[in-house]
Amino acid sequence: MTIVRHRVAVLAVDHVVGLDLGTPSQVFGTARTEDGRRLYTVDACTPGGRPVRSTAGFQVLPDHGLELVQAADTVVVPGIHGGAAMTDGTIDPEVAAALRAAHERGARIMSICTGAFVLAAAGLLNGRRATTHWAYADLFRRLHPAVDLDPEVLFIDSDDVLTSAGVAAGLDLCLHVIRTDHGSEVANHSARRCVVPPWRDGGQAQYIERPVPRGAGTGTAGTREWARQRLHEPVTLRELAGHARMSVRTFTRHFRSETGLSPTQWLLQERTDHARLLLETTDLTVDQVAHRCGFGTAAALRQRLHQHVGVSPSTYRRTFRRSP
């Protein structure tokens, strides 16, 4: 079967953040079919194909100009630290026109971190819910009051325009897009290749001024892995704390500092993610999936999926069970 690769254009402008620039290529580049064929083609471009300055002390020498944006299926704007977009809310008219034209013809538009300033300056976020790095929220609101900014989430998917918070949230957003395009199995494989968690819900809180968790071997990572092997069982908070050899209060405090979630929220998220994977990759009945994931009944699983993704298990299976 011939695989038509999805074309991703990474649009860099002056003051681009180096890590954000490399994230789409790294993550989308790991998405493969079962026989190893790539599902995405990722290339970088700049206005006029000219070199642009990064914030990491090097210049970006692209192979493409804005013509790449005109042909791409998805356009990603990495974060920036500086320039007119962050001082007076404006961007090069040529860049704004290219982004608007791509959006109008149906391309998916994404930003990582402060790349949202570029999308907002192009007028693509007006009236939309969007996010960016929490540290720049006040500045963003001053420059773009017409945007419904939510700086407390990891990413926001508004169908054709997607925005993410800082640094690692760009990884989360790219994995979310792979999951949407090709299902959990492909996205989980990409996450393993990138050595990152396969799923963090977009609505999860950004890690804002949180204390650094305790060192390896003294945190809750081992207990989280232990719990993942027992999602079909009614694991209690007391059992989790006992496995970690902590009091319930101490365990809950450290768990939240390391994950941004309470143990109960985390367990529910893990069970939901596992249910989605089973619906996508197996022929198990909804009752069997509910049992294996710890929901107990099909009704409980249906309620959770309706709350989380807005569809029933059977609809989810029909929508996302697809071969790359």
DSSP, total strands: 10
Mean model confidence by pLDDT:
88
Unreliable parts: 202-217
Total DSSP helices:
15
* Helix coverage percent: 40-55%
Main β-sheet description: 6 strands, mixed
**Pattern of helices and strands:** EHEEEHEHHEHEHEEEHHHHHHHHH
Strand proportion, as a percent range, falls in: 5-15%
Q: What gross morphology would you assign? A: globular
Structural class: alpha/beta
Q: State the end-to-end CA separation.
A: 10 Å
Rg for CA atoms: 21 Å
**What order do the strands of the largest sheet run in, or round the barrel if closed?**
2-1-5-6-10-9
What descriptive keywords fit this protein?
324 residues; alpha/beta; 6-stranded mixed sheet; two-stranded antiparallel ribbon; 10 strands; globular
What can you see in these coordinates?
The chain has 15 helices and ten strands. It is of the alpha/beta class and 324 residues long. The strands form three sheets. Strands 2-1-5-6-10-9 form a six-stranded mixed β-sheet, with helices on both faces. A hairpin with a 5-residue loop joins strand 3 (52-53) and strand 4 (59-60). It starts with 5 loop residues before the first strand and ends with a helix.
Provide a brief overview of the structure:
The chain has 324 residues and is of the alpha/beta class.
Topology:
Layout: E1 6-11, H1 18-28, E2 40-45, E3 52-53, E4 59-60, H2 67-71, E5 74-77, H3 84-87, H4 93-104, E6 108-111, H5 115-121, E7 129-130, H6 137-143, E8 148-149, E9 155-157, E10 161-164, H7 168-182, H8 184-194, H9 221-228, H10 237-243, H11 248-259, H12 263-281, H13 286-292, H14 298-308, H15 313-320
Parallel strand pairs: 1-2, 1-5, 5-6, 6-10, 7-8
Antiparallel strand pairs: 3-4, 9-10
Helix pairs in contact: 1-7, 7-8, 10-11
